[in-house]
Amino acid sequence: MLETVLEVRGLSVVRPGGAGRAGAELTAGADLAVENVSFSLAAESDTALVGPNGAGKSSLVRALLGILPRAAGEVRVLGAPLTRAGRLPAAVRSQVAYLPQQLSVRGRFPLSVSEFVGLGWEPGGLRLPWSDRGRRAAAVQLALERTGSACLARRLISELSTGQWKRVLLAFCVVRPRRLLVLDEAQAGLDPQAGEQFQSLLFNLRRSEGWAVLQISHDLEMVRRTCDRVICLNRSLRCVGSPDHALSPAQLERLYGQAFVPYHHHHTVPGGHSVRS
Amino acid sequence: MVIPSAPEWFSLLEFPFMQRALLAGLFSGGLGGLLGSVAVLRQLSFFSDALGHAALLGISLGLLLGVEPMAVLIPFAVLFALLVGELVERSRLPGDALLNVIYSSSLAIAVVLLRLLKSRGGSLEQLLFGDILGVSWADVIVQGGLLMAVLLYLLLTRRSQILGSLDQGLAVSQGVAVRWQRLLFVVVLAVVVALSIRAVGVLLVSAFVVIPACSARLLASDFNHYMLMASGLGAGCGVVGLLLSGLFNLPSGPCVVIVQLLVFLVALLLREMPSASA
Asked: Mutation test of the interface with chain A: which of B167, B179, B268, B271, choosing the one with the most A Cβ atoms within 10 A?
Protein backbone atom coordinates (compact mmCIF):
# COMPACT_ATOMS: atom_id res chain seq x y z
CA MET A 1 0.00 0.00 0.00
CA LEU A 2 1.52 3.31 -1.12
CA GLU A 3 1.84 6.17 1.35
CA THR A 4 -0.88 8.83 1.44
CA VAL A 5 0.70 12.10 0.30
CA LEU A 6 -2.35 14.35 0.47
CA GLU A 7 -5.49 13.99 2.51
CA VAL A 8 -8.42 16.40 2.21
CA ARG A 9 -11.42 16.10 4.55
CA GLY A 10 -14.61 18.18 4.33
CA LEU A 11 -12.88 21.11 2.63
CA SER A 12 -15.00 24.19 1.94
CA VAL A 13 -13.70 27.38 0.39
CA VAL A 14 -15.44 30.74 0.22
CA ARG A 15 -15.51 32.17 -3.30
CA PRO A 16 -12.82 34.89 -3.52
CA GLY A 17 -14.64 38.22 -3.45
CA GLY A 18 -17.94 36.45 -2.72
CA ALA A 19 -20.38 36.97 0.11
CA GLY A 20 -18.76 36.36 3.47
CA ARG A 21 -15.14 37.18 4.13
CA ALA A 22 -12.60 34.77 2.70
CA GLY A 23 -10.88 32.98 5.51
CA ALA A 24 -13.72 33.48 7.92
CA GLU A 25 -15.40 30.53 9.56
CA LEU A 26 -18.12 28.94 7.53
CA THR A 27 -21.33 30.91 8.01
CA ALA A 28 -24.85 30.41 6.77
CA GLY A 29 -25.31 31.95 3.34
CA ALA A 30 -21.60 32.10 2.55
CA ASP A 31 -20.91 31.98 -1.19
CA LEU A 32 -18.89 28.78 -1.48
CA ALA A 33 -16.59 27.98 -4.39
CA VAL A 34 -15.98 24.51 -2.98
CA GLU A 35 -18.21 22.66 -0.54
CA ASN A 36 -17.39 19.72 1.70
CA VAL A 37 -14.84 17.98 -0.52
CA SER A 38 -12.91 14.92 0.67
CA PHE A 39 -10.33 12.82 -1.18
CA SER A 40 -6.78 11.57 -0.81
CA LEU A 41 -3.78 11.05 -3.10
CA ALA A 42 -1.34 8.17 -2.87
CA ALA A 43 2.32 8.44 -3.73
CA GLU A 44 3.17 7.94 -7.42
CA SER A 45 -0.43 8.55 -8.53
CA ASP A 46 -1.56 10.87 -11.32
CA THR A 47 -4.95 12.36 -10.59
CA ALA A 48 -6.89 14.74 -12.81
CA LEU A 49 -9.30 17.29 -11.40
CA VAL A 50 -12.01 17.99 -13.97
CA GLY A 51 -15.18 20.03 -14.06
CA PRO A 52 -16.84 22.91 -15.93
CA ASN A 53 -15.58 26.50 -15.74
CA GLY A 54 -16.39 28.04 -12.37
CA ALA A 55 -16.63 24.60 -10.73
CA GLY A 56 -14.09 25.61 -8.07
CA LYS A 57 -11.12 23.58 -9.32
CA SER A 58 -8.56 26.39 -8.95
CA SER A 59 -10.05 27.42 -5.60
CA LEU A 60 -9.75 23.83 -4.38
CA VAL A 61 -6.08 23.41 -5.31
CA ARG A 62 -5.19 26.88 -4.06
CA ALA A 63 -6.87 26.17 -0.72
CA LEU A 64 -5.16 22.83 -0.24
CA LEU A 65 -1.80 24.52 -0.85
CA GLY A 66 -2.59 27.31 1.63
CA ILE A 67 -2.73 30.00 -1.07
CA LEU A 68 -6.43 30.62 -0.39
CA PRO A 69 -7.86 30.38 3.12
CA ARG A 70 -10.34 27.60 3.78
CA ALA A 71 -13.68 28.07 5.46
CA ALA A 72 -13.93 24.53 6.83
CA GLY A 73 -12.26 21.16 6.68
CA GLU A 74 -8.82 19.66 7.11
CA VAL A 75 -5.85 19.24 4.81
CA ARG A 76 -2.84 17.04 5.57
CA VAL A 77 0.28 16.89 3.43
CA LEU A 78 2.59 13.95 4.17
CA GLY A 79 0.73 13.63 7.47
CA ALA A 80 1.35 17.25 8.54
CA PRO A 81 -1.73 19.44 9.00
CA LEU A 82 -2.02 22.61 6.94
CA THR A 83 -2.69 25.38 9.49
CA ARG A 84 -5.59 27.83 9.15
CA ALA A 85 -3.00 30.43 8.11
CA GLY A 86 -1.89 28.12 5.28
CA ARG A 87 1.42 27.05 6.84
CA LEU A 88 3.16 23.69 6.64
CA PRO A 89 6.39 22.60 8.33
CA ALA A 90 9.35 23.72 6.17
CA ALA A 91 10.49 20.12 5.63
CA VAL A 92 7.05 19.24 4.21
CA ARG A 93 6.57 22.47 2.27
CA SER A 94 9.86 21.94 0.42
CA GLN A 95 8.45 18.66 -0.97
CA VAL A 96 5.46 20.38 -2.56
CA ALA A 97 5.49 22.15 -5.91
CA TYR A 98 2.76 24.12 -7.65
CA LEU A 99 2.65 25.11 -11.30
CA PRO A 100 0.26 28.03 -11.80
CA GLN A 101 -1.55 28.39 -15.10
CA GLN A 102 0.36 31.60 -15.80
CA LEU A 103 2.54 34.02 -13.89
CA SER A 104 1.73 37.64 -13.13
CA VAL A 105 4.87 38.77 -14.99
CA ARG A 106 4.46 41.76 -17.26
CA GLY A 107 7.14 42.95 -19.66
CA ARG A 108 10.82 42.09 -19.48
CA PHE A 109 11.60 40.25 -16.24
CA PRO A 110 15.33 40.19 -15.50
CA LEU A 111 15.58 36.63 -14.18
CA SER A 112 17.47 33.93 -16.08
CA VAL A 113 16.14 30.40 -16.40
CA SER A 114 19.00 28.98 -14.31
CA GLU A 115 18.35 31.57 -11.57
CA PHE A 116 14.65 30.68 -11.57
CA VAL A 117 15.30 26.93 -11.32
CA GLY A 118 17.84 27.67 -8.57
CA LEU A 119 15.03 29.26 -6.52
CA GLY A 120 13.28 25.89 -6.59
CA TRP A 121 16.38 24.24 -5.17
CA GLU A 122 16.93 26.74 -2.34
CA PRO A 123 15.23 25.97 0.95
CA GLY A 124 13.05 28.70 2.45
CA GLY A 125 14.16 31.14 5.14
CA LEU A 126 16.87 33.77 5.21
CA ARG A 127 20.03 32.93 3.31
CA LEU A 128 22.66 34.76 1.32
CA PRO A 129 22.50 34.18 -2.46
CA TRP A 130 26.02 32.72 -2.65
CA SER A 131 25.39 30.00 -0.03
CA ASP A 132 25.93 26.48 -1.47
CA ARG A 133 26.60 27.97 -4.89
CA GLY A 134 28.37 24.88 -6.27
CA ARG A 135 25.71 22.38 -5.18
CA ARG A 136 22.93 24.60 -6.45
CA ALA A 137 24.59 25.06 -9.85
CA ALA A 138 25.05 21.27 -10.21
CA ALA A 139 21.41 20.59 -9.23
CA VAL A 140 20.13 23.26 -11.64
CA GLN A 141 22.23 21.90 -14.51
CA LEU A 142 20.92 18.37 -13.92
CA ALA A 143 17.29 19.56 -13.69
CA LEU A 144 17.62 21.53 -16.92
CA GLU A 145 19.15 18.52 -18.69
CA ARG A 146 16.41 16.18 -17.47
CA THR A 147 13.73 18.47 -18.85
CA GLY A 148 15.52 19.20 -22.11
CA SER A 149 15.98 22.85 -21.14
CA ALA A 150 19.77 23.07 -20.78
CA CYS A 151 20.01 25.28 -23.87
CA LEU A 152 17.67 27.81 -22.18
CA ALA A 153 19.81 28.29 -19.04
CA ARG A 154 20.88 31.85 -19.83
CA ARG A 155 17.62 33.02 -21.39
CA LEU A 156 15.29 35.35 -19.46
CA ILE A 157 12.10 33.67 -18.26
CA SER A 158 9.99 36.44 -19.82
CA GLU A 159 11.42 35.61 -23.25
CA LEU A 160 10.42 31.94 -23.36
CA SER A 161 7.70 30.42 -25.50
CA THR A 162 4.82 28.73 -23.65
CA GLY A 163 6.24 25.26 -24.35
CA GLN A 164 9.72 26.24 -23.15
CA TRP A 165 8.26 27.86 -20.05
CA LYS A 166 6.32 24.71 -19.10
CA ARG A 167 9.51 22.63 -19.37
CA VAL A 168 11.36 25.15 -17.20
CA LEU A 169 8.56 24.91 -14.62
CA LEU A 170 9.08 21.14 -14.56
CA ALA A 171 12.83 21.76 -14.05
CA PHE A 172 11.86 23.99 -11.08
CA CYS A 173 9.95 21.01 -9.64
CA VAL A 174 12.55 18.34 -10.33
CA VAL A 175 15.53 20.35 -9.06
CA ARG A 176 14.94 18.99 -5.55
CA PRO A 177 13.15 15.89 -4.24
CA ARG A 178 9.38 16.48 -4.14
CA ARG A 179 6.45 14.29 -3.21
CA LEU A 180 3.44 16.32 -4.35
CA LEU A 181 3.05 18.24 -7.60
CA VAL A 182 -0.05 20.35 -8.25
CA LEU A 183 -0.64 21.73 -11.75
CA ASP A 184 -3.29 24.27 -12.70
CA GLU A 185 -4.12 23.67 -16.37
CA ALA A 186 -0.53 22.96 -17.29
CA GLN A 187 -1.48 22.38 -20.93
CA ALA A 188 -3.18 25.72 -21.42
CA GLY A 189 -1.61 27.57 -24.35
CA LEU A 190 0.18 24.51 -25.75
CA ASP A 191 -0.51 23.16 -29.23
CA PRO A 192 -1.45 19.44 -29.41
CA GLN A 193 2.12 18.34 -30.17
CA ALA A 194 3.68 20.43 -27.38
CA GLY A 195 0.91 19.27 -25.02
CA GLU A 196 1.72 15.66 -25.83
CA GLN A 197 5.43 16.24 -25.26
CA PHE A 198 4.73 17.97 -21.95
CA GLN A 199 2.54 15.09 -20.73
CA SER A 200 5.13 12.56 -21.78
CA LEU A 201 7.88 14.44 -19.88
CA LEU A 202 5.62 14.80 -16.84
CA PHE A 203 4.78 11.10 -16.97
CA ASN A 204 8.46 10.06 -17.10
CA LEU A 205 9.46 12.42 -14.31
CA ARG A 206 6.56 11.27 -12.13
CA ARG A 207 7.62 7.66 -12.57
CA SER A 208 11.27 8.33 -11.79
CA GLU A 209 10.65 10.82 -8.95
CA GLY A 210 7.67 9.07 -7.37
CA TRP A 211 5.57 12.24 -7.41
CA ALA A 212 1.90 12.25 -6.55
CA VAL A 213 0.44 14.53 -9.24
CA LEU A 214 -2.82 16.45 -9.05
CA GLN A 215 -3.58 18.31 -12.25
CA ILE A 216 -6.51 20.46 -13.26
CA SER A 217 -7.40 19.80 -16.86
CA HIS A 218 -10.07 20.50 -19.46
CA ASP A 219 -8.51 18.05 -21.92
CA LEU A 220 -10.53 14.93 -21.17
CA GLU A 221 -8.81 12.87 -23.86
CA MET A 222 -5.42 13.62 -22.32
CA VAL A 223 -6.85 12.74 -18.91
CA ARG A 224 -8.19 9.45 -20.27
CA ARG A 225 -4.80 8.54 -21.73
CA THR A 226 -2.41 9.70 -19.00
CA CYS A 227 -4.11 9.82 -15.60
CA ASP A 228 -4.89 6.86 -13.39
CA ARG A 229 -7.61 8.59 -11.39
CA VAL A 230 -10.15 11.35 -11.97
CA ILE A 231 -11.89 13.66 -9.51
CA CYS A 232 -15.03 15.32 -10.89
CA LEU A 233 -15.88 18.60 -9.20
CA ASN A 234 -18.72 21.02 -9.61
CA ARG A 235 -18.59 22.94 -6.33
CA SER A 236 -18.98 19.62 -4.52
CA LEU A 237 -17.44 16.28 -5.40
CA ARG A 238 -19.46 14.53 -8.15
CA CYS A 239 -17.40 11.36 -8.52
CA VAL A 240 -13.96 9.88 -7.97
CA GLY A 241 -12.63 6.88 -9.85
CA SER A 242 -10.74 5.51 -12.80
CA PRO A 243 -10.88 7.47 -16.09
CA ASP A 244 -13.13 4.80 -17.62
CA HIS A 245 -15.65 5.22 -14.82
CA ALA A 246 -15.40 8.96 -14.16
CA LEU A 247 -15.38 9.94 -17.83
CA SER A 248 -18.22 7.67 -18.88
CA PRO A 249 -21.09 9.41 -20.74
CA ALA A 250 -23.35 9.08 -17.71
CA GLN A 251 -20.85 10.73 -15.36
CA LEU A 252 -19.99 13.45 -17.88
CA GLU A 253 -23.66 14.24 -18.30
CA ARG A 254 -23.99 14.60 -14.53
CA LEU A 255 -20.94 16.84 -14.42
CA TYR A 256 -21.31 19.04 -17.49
CA GLY A 257 -24.97 18.69 -18.41
CA GLN A 258 -26.73 16.91 -21.27
CA ALA A 259 -25.48 19.09 -24.11
CA PHE A 260 -21.84 18.30 -23.41
CA VAL A 261 -21.78 14.54 -24.00
CA PRO A 262 -22.58 14.44 -27.74
CA TYR A 263 -20.16 17.32 -28.26
CA HIS A 264 -17.42 15.50 -26.37
CA HIS A 265 -17.90 12.31 -28.36
CA HIS A 266 -17.83 14.26 -31.59
CA HIS A 267 -14.46 15.89 -30.72
CA THR A 268 -12.52 12.98 -29.22
CA VAL A 269 -9.74 11.22 -31.09
CA PRO A 270 -10.57 7.53 -31.08
CA GLY A 271 -7.75 5.17 -30.20
CA GLY A 272 -5.34 7.82 -28.88
CA HIS A 273 -2.31 5.97 -27.55
CA SER A 274 -2.05 5.57 -23.79
CA VAL A 275 1.00 6.63 -21.80
CA ARG A 276 -0.41 4.99 -18.69
CA SER A 277 1.58 2.12 -17.29
CA MET B 1 25.74 79.11 -20.69
CA VAL B 2 29.49 78.97 -19.94
CA ILE B 3 31.07 75.49 -19.82
CA PRO B 4 33.20 75.29 -16.63
CA SER B 5 36.88 74.41 -17.01
CA ALA B 6 38.48 71.34 -15.41
CA PRO B 7 39.99 73.30 -12.48
CA GLU B 8 36.51 74.57 -11.67
CA TRP B 9 35.22 70.99 -11.46
CA PHE B 10 37.97 70.10 -8.99
CA SER B 11 37.68 73.30 -6.97
CA LEU B 12 34.04 72.45 -6.42
CA LEU B 13 35.05 69.27 -4.60
CA GLU B 14 37.00 71.28 -2.01
CA PHE B 15 33.81 72.64 -0.49
CA PRO B 16 32.62 70.49 2.47
CA PHE B 17 28.96 71.03 1.51
CA MET B 18 29.73 69.66 -1.94
CA GLN B 19 31.57 66.65 -0.49
CA ARG B 20 28.56 65.90 1.73
CA ALA B 21 26.18 66.39 -1.18
CA LEU B 22 28.13 64.05 -3.45
CA LEU B 23 28.21 61.35 -0.80
CA ALA B 24 24.49 61.88 -0.14
CA GLY B 25 23.85 61.67 -3.88
CA LEU B 26 25.92 58.48 -4.12
CA PHE B 27 24.15 56.85 -1.18
CA SER B 28 20.58 58.02 -1.85
CA GLY B 29 20.93 57.23 -5.57
CA GLY B 30 22.33 53.77 -4.84
CA LEU B 31 19.69 53.15 -2.20
CA GLY B 32 16.84 54.25 -4.47
CA GLY B 33 18.10 52.08 -7.33
CA LEU B 34 18.59 49.05 -5.11
CA LEU B 35 15.18 49.20 -3.46
CA GLY B 36 13.59 50.29 -6.72
CA SER B 37 14.85 47.13 -8.44
CA VAL B 38 12.41 45.13 -6.34
CA ALA B 39 9.70 47.84 -6.09
CA VAL B 40 9.41 47.98 -9.89
CA LEU B 41 9.13 44.19 -10.20
CA ARG B 42 6.49 44.16 -7.45
CA GLN B 43 4.58 46.86 -9.33
CA LEU B 44 5.00 49.33 -6.47
CA SER B 45 6.30 52.25 -8.55
CA PHE B 46 3.13 54.27 -8.11
CA PHE B 47 3.06 53.35 -4.44
CA SER B 48 6.48 54.97 -3.89
CA ASP B 49 5.16 58.09 -5.61
CA ALA B 50 2.19 58.17 -3.22
CA LEU B 51 4.56 57.72 -0.27
CA GLY B 52 6.64 60.66 -1.44
CA HIS B 53 3.63 62.94 -1.72
CA ALA B 54 2.25 61.80 1.62
CA ALA B 55 5.60 62.60 3.25
CA LEU B 56 4.80 66.28 2.79
CA LEU B 57 1.67 65.71 4.86
CA GLY B 58 3.83 64.09 7.55
CA ILE B 59 6.16 67.11 7.59
CA SER B 60 3.25 69.54 7.84
CA LEU B 61 1.75 67.51 10.71
CA GLY B 62 5.10 67.73 12.52
CA LEU B 63 5.08 71.49 12.08
CA LEU B 64 1.48 71.70 13.23
CA LEU B 65 2.35 69.73 16.39
CA GLY B 66 5.42 71.86 16.95
CA VAL B 67 7.90 68.94 16.88
CA GLU B 68 10.87 68.13 14.66
CA PRO B 69 9.24 67.19 11.31
CA MET B 70 11.57 64.20 10.74
CA ALA B 71 10.53 62.73 14.12
CA VAL B 72 6.93 62.66 12.88
CA LEU B 73 7.74 61.83 9.28
CA ILE B 74 9.18 58.33 9.75
CA PRO B 75 6.36 56.88 11.92
CA PHE B 76 3.83 58.72 9.75
CA ALA B 77 5.28 57.28 6.54
CA VAL B 78 5.37 53.74 7.96
CA LEU B 79 1.79 53.96 9.26
CA PHE B 80 0.62 55.53 6.00
CA ALA B 81 2.34 52.82 3.96
CA LEU B 82 0.77 50.01 6.00
CA LEU B 83 -2.72 51.53 5.89
CA VAL B 84 -2.62 52.32 2.20
CA GLY B 85 -1.07 48.94 1.40
CA GLU B 86 -3.95 47.18 3.14
CA LEU B 87 -6.52 49.50 1.56
CA VAL B 88 -5.18 48.79 -1.95
CA GLU B 89 -5.09 45.07 -1.21
CA ARG B 90 -8.68 44.92 0.04
CA SER B 91 -10.36 47.58 -2.10
CA ARG B 92 -12.39 46.65 -5.13
CA LEU B 93 -11.12 49.77 -6.91
CA PRO B 94 -8.05 49.55 -9.16
CA GLY B 95 -4.88 50.20 -7.14
CA ASP B 96 -3.61 53.04 -9.35
CA ALA B 97 -6.91 54.94 -9.11
CA LEU B 98 -6.98 54.57 -5.32
CA LEU B 99 -3.35 55.68 -5.00
CA ASN B 100 -4.09 58.71 -7.16
CA VAL B 101 -6.94 59.73 -4.84
CA ILE B 102 -4.70 59.30 -1.81
CA TYR B 103 -1.58 61.05 -3.04
CA SER B 104 -3.28 64.04 -4.62
CA SER B 105 -5.41 64.61 -1.50
CA SER B 106 -2.35 64.25 0.77
CA LEU B 107 -0.48 66.81 -1.31
CA ALA B 108 -3.41 69.22 -1.32
CA ILE B 109 -3.94 69.01 2.45
CA ALA B 110 -0.20 69.36 3.10
CA VAL B 111 0.20 72.45 0.90
CA VAL B 112 -2.78 74.15 2.57
CA LEU B 113 -1.44 73.27 6.04
CA LEU B 114 2.03 74.58 5.18
CA ARG B 115 0.56 77.80 3.84
CA LEU B 116 -1.48 78.24 7.04
CA LEU B 117 1.66 77.54 9.08
CA LYS B 118 3.59 79.97 6.85
CA SER B 119 6.16 77.28 5.99
CA ARG B 120 7.99 77.30 9.30
CA GLY B 121 9.96 74.20 8.23
CA GLY B 122 11.63 75.80 5.20
CA SER B 123 10.41 76.94 1.83
CA LEU B 124 7.84 74.84 0.02
CA GLU B 125 10.21 74.61 -2.95
CA GLN B 126 12.90 73.03 -0.74
CA LEU B 127 10.42 70.44 0.48
CA LEU B 128 9.13 69.70 -3.00
CA PHE B 129 12.47 69.44 -4.78
CA GLY B 130 14.86 68.72 -1.90
CA ASP B 131 18.02 70.47 -0.82
CA ILE B 132 20.80 67.97 -1.22
CA LEU B 133 23.42 70.70 -0.89
CA GLY B 134 22.13 71.39 2.62
CA VAL B 135 22.51 67.86 4.04
CA SER B 136 24.57 67.38 7.20
CA TRP B 137 27.20 64.72 7.92
CA ALA B 138 24.60 63.03 10.13
CA ASP B 139 22.26 62.78 7.13
CA VAL B 140 25.09 61.29 5.04
CA ILE B 141 25.91 58.70 7.71
CA VAL B 142 22.22 57.74 8.04
CA GLN B 143 21.95 57.32 4.25
CA GLY B 144 25.12 55.18 4.16
CA GLY B 145 23.90 53.00 7.05
CA LEU B 146 20.49 52.64 5.43
CA LEU B 147 22.10 51.57 2.15
CA MET B 148 24.00 48.80 3.96
CA ALA B 149 20.90 47.69 5.87
CA VAL B 150 18.72 47.57 2.73
CA LEU B 151 21.43 45.69 0.83
CA LEU B 152 21.59 43.05 3.57
CA TYR B 153 17.77 42.83 3.75
CA LEU B 154 17.40 42.33 0.01
CA LEU B 155 20.23 39.78 -0.17
CA LEU B 156 18.74 37.73 2.67
CA THR B 157 15.18 37.83 1.31
CA ARG B 158 16.13 37.62 -2.39
CA ARG B 159 14.29 34.34 -2.99
CA SER B 160 11.08 35.60 -1.36
CA GLN B 161 11.24 38.91 -3.24
CA ILE B 162 11.62 37.22 -6.61
CA LEU B 163 8.98 34.53 -6.06
CA GLY B 164 6.56 37.12 -4.63
CA SER B 165 7.08 39.27 -7.73
CA LEU B 166 6.54 36.32 -10.09
CA ASP B 167 3.34 34.89 -8.65
CA GLN B 168 1.80 34.95 -5.18
CA GLY B 169 0.50 31.40 -5.47
CA LEU B 170 3.88 30.06 -6.53
CA ALA B 171 5.52 31.98 -3.66
CA VAL B 172 3.10 30.65 -1.02
CA SER B 173 3.48 27.11 -2.34
CA GLN B 174 7.24 27.49 -1.81
CA GLY B 175 6.78 28.56 1.81
CA VAL B 176 7.09 32.34 1.36
CA ALA B 177 5.05 34.31 3.91
CA VAL B 178 3.83 36.58 1.12
CA ARG B 179 1.72 38.90 3.27
CA TRP B 180 4.44 39.54 5.86
CA GLN B 181 7.10 39.95 3.22
CA ARG B 182 4.96 42.52 1.43
CA LEU B 183 4.30 44.45 4.63
CA LEU B 184 7.99 44.43 5.54
CA PHE B 185 8.97 45.63 2.08
CA VAL B 186 6.42 48.44 2.23
CA VAL B 187 7.76 49.51 5.65
CA VAL B 188 11.36 49.55 4.36
CA LEU B 189 10.23 51.54 1.32
CA ALA B 190 8.44 54.04 3.59
CA VAL B 191 11.53 54.52 5.81
CA VAL B 192 13.80 55.01 2.79
CA VAL B 193 11.41 57.49 1.18
CA ALA B 194 11.02 59.41 4.47
CA LEU B 195 14.77 59.64 5.02
CA SER B 196 15.45 60.67 1.43
CA ILE B 197 12.94 63.51 1.39
CA ARG B 198 15.33 66.14 2.77
CA ALA B 199 17.88 65.47 0.06
CA VAL B 200 15.66 64.57 -2.86
CA GLY B 201 12.33 66.28 -2.23
CA VAL B 202 8.74 65.13 -2.21
CA LEU B 203 8.10 65.33 -5.92
CA LEU B 204 11.24 63.62 -7.13
CA VAL B 205 11.82 60.88 -4.58
CA SER B 206 9.90 58.31 -6.61
CA ALA B 207 12.12 59.05 -9.62
CA PHE B 208 15.12 57.91 -7.55
CA VAL B 209 13.31 54.63 -6.90
CA VAL B 210 11.81 54.01 -10.32
CA ILE B 211 14.00 55.41 -13.13
CA PRO B 212 17.36 53.64 -12.48
CA ALA B 213 15.49 50.36 -11.89
CA CYS B 214 13.61 50.74 -15.20
CA SER B 215 16.88 51.42 -17.04
CA ALA B 216 18.47 48.32 -15.47
CA ARG B 217 15.38 46.23 -16.24
CA LEU B 218 15.78 47.04 -19.92
CA LEU B 219 19.42 45.96 -20.01
CA ALA B 220 20.15 43.34 -17.33
CA SER B 221 20.82 39.75 -18.37
CA ASP B 222 19.99 38.17 -14.99
CA PHE B 223 18.74 39.15 -11.54
CA ASN B 224 22.11 39.72 -9.82
CA HIS B 225 23.18 41.87 -12.74
CA TYR B 226 19.87 43.75 -12.52
CA MET B 227 20.13 44.66 -8.83
CA LEU B 228 23.77 45.68 -9.17
CA MET B 229 23.05 47.73 -12.28
CA ALA B 230 20.00 49.50 -10.77
CA SER B 231 22.00 50.45 -7.70
CA GLY B 232 25.07 51.47 -9.69
CA LEU B 233 23.07 53.57 -12.14
CA GLY B 234 21.23 55.24 -9.24
CA ALA B 235 24.51 56.08 -7.50
CA GLY B 236 26.23 57.22 -10.71
CA CYS B 237 23.33 59.44 -11.75
CA GLY B 238 23.28 60.91 -8.22
CA VAL B 239 26.94 61.95 -8.40
CA VAL B 240 26.88 63.19 -12.01
CA GLY B 241 23.62 65.09 -11.48
CA LEU B 242 25.02 66.83 -8.40
CA LEU B 243 28.24 67.81 -10.09
CA LEU B 244 26.27 69.33 -12.97
CA SER B 245 24.01 71.10 -10.51
CA GLY B 246 27.01 72.58 -8.67
CA LEU B 247 28.79 73.62 -11.84
CA PHE B 248 25.83 75.23 -13.54
CA ASN B 249 24.18 76.48 -10.35
CA LEU B 250 20.95 74.59 -11.04
CA PRO B 251 18.60 72.85 -8.55
CA SER B 252 20.21 69.54 -7.50
CA GLY B 253 17.22 67.12 -7.37
CA PRO B 254 15.95 67.97 -10.87
CA CYS B 255 19.52 67.74 -12.26
CA VAL B 256 19.87 64.19 -10.90
CA VAL B 257 16.50 63.20 -12.35
CA ILE B 258 17.42 64.63 -15.76
CA VAL B 259 20.62 62.55 -15.76
CA GLN B 260 18.55 59.49 -14.78
CA LEU B 261 16.20 60.22 -17.67
CA LEU B 262 19.09 60.48 -20.14
CA VAL B 263 20.44 57.12 -18.97
CA PHE B 264 16.95 55.63 -19.31
CA LEU B 265 16.67 56.93 -22.88
CA VAL B 266 20.05 55.40 -23.74
CA ALA B 267 18.90 52.07 -22.21
CA LEU B 268 15.69 52.25 -24.23
CA LEU B 269 17.66 52.92 -27.40
CA LEU B 270 20.05 50.03 -26.73
CA ARG B 271 17.12 47.68 -26.03
CA GLU B 272 15.28 48.70 -29.17
CA MET B 273 18.35 48.29 -31.38
CA PRO B 274 17.99 45.08 -33.45
CA SER B 275 21.26 43.57 -32.18
CA ALA B 276 20.25 44.07 -28.53
CA SER B 277 16.92 42.37 -28.90
CA ALA B 278 18.24 39.50 -31.00
From this structure: B167
